[in-house]
Structure formats: structure tokens, C-alpha cells
Amino acid sequence: MAREISTVGVVGLGTMGAGIAEVLARSGLDVVAVELDEAGVERGLGHLRHSTERALAGGKLDEAGREALLGRVRCTTSLAELSEVDLVIEAIPENLAAKAEVFTQLDQVTRPDVVFASNTSSLSITEIGVHTARPGKVVGMHFFNPAPVLKLVEVVRTVVTEPDVVSDVVEFAQRLGKSPVVIGDRAGFIANALLFGYLNHAVRMYEQRYATREDLDAAMRFGCGYPMGPLALLDLIGLDTAYEILDTMYHQSRNRLHAPAPLLKQMITAGQLGRKSGHGFYAYDAPDSPVVVDSVASSTVDSSLAREVQSVGVIGTGTMATGIAEVFAKRGFDVVLRARSMDKAEASVAKVKKSLDKAVVKGKLSEEDAAAALARIRPVTEFEELAGVDLVVEAVAEELSVKQAVFSALDEVVRPGAVLATTTSSLPVIECAAATSRPGDVIGLHFFNPAPVMKLVEVVSTIATAPDVTATATAVCAAVGKHPVHCGDRAGFIVNALLFPYLNDAVKMLEAHYASADDIDTAMKVGCGLPMGPFELLDVVGLDVSLAIERTLFNEFREEGFAPAPLLEHLVTAGRLGRKTGKGFKDY
């Protein structure tokens, strides 16, 4: 029979503890909250008042409901006051010795059947539980910040946690209106184990001056639909908290990708902890303020150098090529669309027409503008037809020899001073440039699919790209309403280099039978606000495409953690490629 839980003890009234207390009280439970001293109690009550005031202002709570909620929370500075509670949730700072001490004391003052839950985000529940005489009744109950808003709760069982304790805690989390996932006791659990490797990787990119903080953050927002970029998110979490979580994960996994980037330690030592200190990767107008005061970075690109671009050549007939042709034609550029045969060229123009017609139906484009855009696209079959254009964008198959043949042909016919761009997502741009006699004029312009919709373009400069070519590419992106981000010519550029190791980590987690694909997807969507879970995304991208990108990353960086998960290799070999074949990580 499930435990009757009507009164809950909460130890620690920081941001997390106060949020958990609010969730409990909002569900009609009585809460006994314990803090170290009266100052801590007052701070905790301040968090509660502030949060419930916001709920009141947002219409999520009325005045009577707010008063009743606050009335259900009783604060104290003595753990002995928890003698009659039915469950205790500990939410003190991430320090194993301090948590162990709290659990030892709780063991002496509560009834023997009371369950103890720790809200730790990275410490071992097993190590905490052994400090009690009831390790079978100790679990992790990891709420996400802000607790009143975020639905995910990771319920962490140890090897000795009693099965009925796990089921009772899951049922209790559901009663609070949360989405619980059950997992084993491993550093970082699901969400942090996948999230913090990605965040650490972004810090390393910034540390190496591979991309600016604005470009890193914009790339993941516009390229993946993430609610926040990695560096802005680290500022929100707190750099000291992030360092502790990564350090704990590294000591358990010995995975170099979890070793905290040295820059994190330097910033923490300098007191730059993120929003809470008023300065982290960004500067804020006050501690705890979300208002950034130095968001405009001085651009590394001199816009005055840009060459004039009026006509554009697009090579290819696939989805990406037709999308790019549409983007330029809609913005008033004359487009020469080159295909291998006139049938293919005309079929591509027909695809553009279909897309423009859809935009008209949706009211996003007038019939006149659609007709004018279509009239600007001229289908051709010969490279010579591109002789007079100012910019050529190559969008043929992701095969180096094919792209090199295109660039070699372009070098013969395109006028001097024209910019030659490739849309490759994973191949080295310099290899395309090397097929020409003008490597300074070659650049990467990585549009994202579908090109008419996605705002992001990665502008990839090689060591040979001339500064005025980078400036031209940047100006062209702005002219077609895209958001350019700049980076060097390295496998994966920004987005794929950050995204695919994270996806690979998720596959390894599934492979280790640590959690189900559904629970991992739920954790990342509900806990981190991502638009899709990793397995949903892999199935959409295609497992063969994902594997090819992961192999490219591994071959370039030779980083052990980037080696593609064997499970992914096996699924591709078995022909389970995702949605396009009807079977991937999930069946469709």
C-alpha cells in the first residue's frame, strides 16, 4: 500500500529549496522548512514571497490562494521539528560532507519508515544514504530550477533502494503535477550528464577563440531552436555550480570531455560566477539581474570591405539548393540555378514555385512578390552561364570529390573577384578552395534546412579566405534576412560540433541500459526545454547522416569521447535509419 504523505520536511531554503516548498504547498501539503539560522529563514521566505508575487501578477494564483500557500509553510532552525513529517527532501548546497551530516541527524529525529530524498544534481545518492540506518529508504529526487515551473523530476534509485520506495516517490511526484523519470545512481543523472558535456564543449570553443560568445549562443538558438545559448545558460546556472557538476562527473567517468575547461576555474577565481555575481561570460546591470549590459560585441568583420553582390549562382537541385535559390530570389537577387540537365533544372524551379505558392496561401507573401521572385530564377545546365555572377553557392552532394570537381569547373569560368561558397555541413572548406587557383575567394556558407525558414548561416573562413570575402559573405547574409555566425574551418563548425557529441552521449547512455529512449527524450525536453529529445532528433536527421557527421568529428579531433556509439553503427548497418525508413530508435 502506498505511503500516506501529508506533511513534508524541506531542509535548505535556497532558490531550489524554496521552489520545492512552494510546489509542495501549492499541492495542498503542509511543509516544515529548516534553515541554519534566522537569516537563512528570512532569505528563504523572501524567495517564496517573490515567486508567489510573480505568480499572482501572472494570474496563476489569486490573493487567497497565495495566502493559503504561504500559510502551509512553517519555518524553523531545528531539524528536531521534523519528527512527525512523512517525507524529507534535502536541498542544501552541493557538498557531500554537509549532506551526509544532515542525513545522519535526520535518521535520529524522524520515524524509521520515513523516506529521505536528496535534491542533489550530481552527488552519489549511495554515498549519502550510507550515513543513515535506512539506506533502502533513501532516493534522489532531483527537481529542476525553477521548481514551480519545470515539470521534470529525476527519481534516482541506488542498488539498495527498496522498490516500494521508488514507486511511492514516483506516485508522489505525479501528485505534484511533475513528470518523473526513474534512473540509477550515476553522476549527472540524465539531464546534467548530457547537458554539461555540451556546455563544457562550448566553453572550450570560446576559450580557443574559435567563435565569439554571441556567435556560439546565436548558433544554438537559431540552428537548434534551443531556448538559450550555452554561455548564457552557464551564466544562469552559475559557473561555480557548473564546475562542481563537471568535476563530479569527471571523477566518476574519467571522460576528458567532462574535465572542466580551465577558463571556468579562472572565471570562478576572479569572482565571475554568472548572473548571481553580475558578471560571467556576459556582464549584467546588477547581481541576479537578467539584463545584459555588454551584449553588443565589437565585430571581427570589417563591413566596409564587402564586395558588391547583385547576381547569385546556385549549383544543385536538392532541397538545400532550391531553398537557397528561393531565399535569394525573394530578396531581389538575380539567381542562375545550374543543374546537370534541363529537366532537373526545371523541376527545381517548380519546387521553388510550390514553396512560394505555399507562402502566398499562408499570407506570408503576396502573389505579385511570389511571381517576381520566380521570374528572377533562370535555370541553366552549363557552368559557363555562371561566368558573370558575383557569388556562387555550391549545394551538391556531401562528397568531397564531387564538390572539388564543381569548384575546379567554377575556377575556369567564373569572373575574377566573384565569391565562391560551399554549403557543406561537415567537409573541410579548404579542400574545396584547394581545387581552385583563388583560395582567397572561397568561403563556407552553411545554410540550415529548410533554408527559407531557418535564420542561421555559419560563415566559415579558411586560413586562406580573404577578409573582404568574409565581409561580403556577412553582408549577403544580412541582405537575405539571415543571422550569420563566424567560425574557422573545423569539422562540424559550431552547431554540429556541439550537437552531435551530445547526441552520441545519449546513445551511449541508452546502450548502457541506464535509461530508456523515452525517458532520456523526456528529461531533455521537460528538464532542459529543448524542442526535441535526442532520439527524436536522431531519427529526424537520419541515423546514417548522424553517423557520418560523428565519424567526421572523431577523425578530425581524435577525441575518445567522440567515437560513434556502437549501437548507432549497428542500427545503420541493420538499415534502421530513422523516420525515412520507418524504423530508427523508435518505430513509425
TrEMBL record:
<dbReference type="Pfam" id="PF02737">
    <property type="entry name" value="3HCDH_N"/>
</dbReference>
<feature type="domain" description="3-hydroxyacyl-CoA dehydrogenase C-terminal">
    <location>
        <begin position="188"/>
        <end position="284"/>
    </location>
</feature>
<keyword id="KW-0560">Oxidoreductase</keyword>
<feature type="domain" description="3-hydroxyacyl-CoA dehydrogenase NAD binding">
    <location>
        <begin position="7"/>
        <end position="185"/>
    </location>
</feature>
<dbReference type="InterPro" id="IPR036291">
    <property type="entry name" value="NAD(P)-bd_dom_sf"/>
</dbReference>
<feature type="domain" description="3-hydroxyacyl-CoA dehydrogenase NAD binding">
    <location>
        <begin position="312"/>
        <end position="489"/>
    </location>
</feature>
<feature type="domain" description="3-hydroxyacyl-CoA dehydrogenase C-terminal">
    <location>
        <begin position="492"/>
        <end position="588"/>
    </location>
</feature>
<comment type="similarity">
    <text>Belongs to the 3-hydroxyacyl-CoA dehydrogenase family.</text>
</comment>
<dbReference type="InterPro" id="IPR008927">
    <property type="entry name" value="6-PGluconate_DH-like_C_sf"/>
</dbReference>
<dbReference type="Pfam" id="PF00725">
    <property type="entry name" value="3HCDH"/>
</dbReference>
<protein>
    <submittedName>
        <fullName>3-hydroxyacyl-CoA dehydrogenase family protein</fullName>
        <ecNumber>1.1.1.35</ecNumber>
    </submittedName>
</protein>
<dbReference type="InterPro" id="IPR013328">
    <property type="entry name" value="6PGD_dom2"/>
</dbReference>
<dbReference type="GO" id="GO:0003857">
    <property type="term" value="F:(3S)-3-hydroxyacyl-CoA dehydrogenase (NAD+) activity"/>
</dbReference>
<dbReference type="InterPro" id="IPR006176">
    <property type="entry name" value="3-OHacyl-CoA_DH_NAD-bd"/>
</dbReference>
<dbReference type="InterPro" id="IPR006108">
    <property type="entry name" value="3HC_DH_C"/>
</dbReference>
<comment type="pathway">
    <text>Lipid metabolism; butanoate metabolism.</text>
</comment>
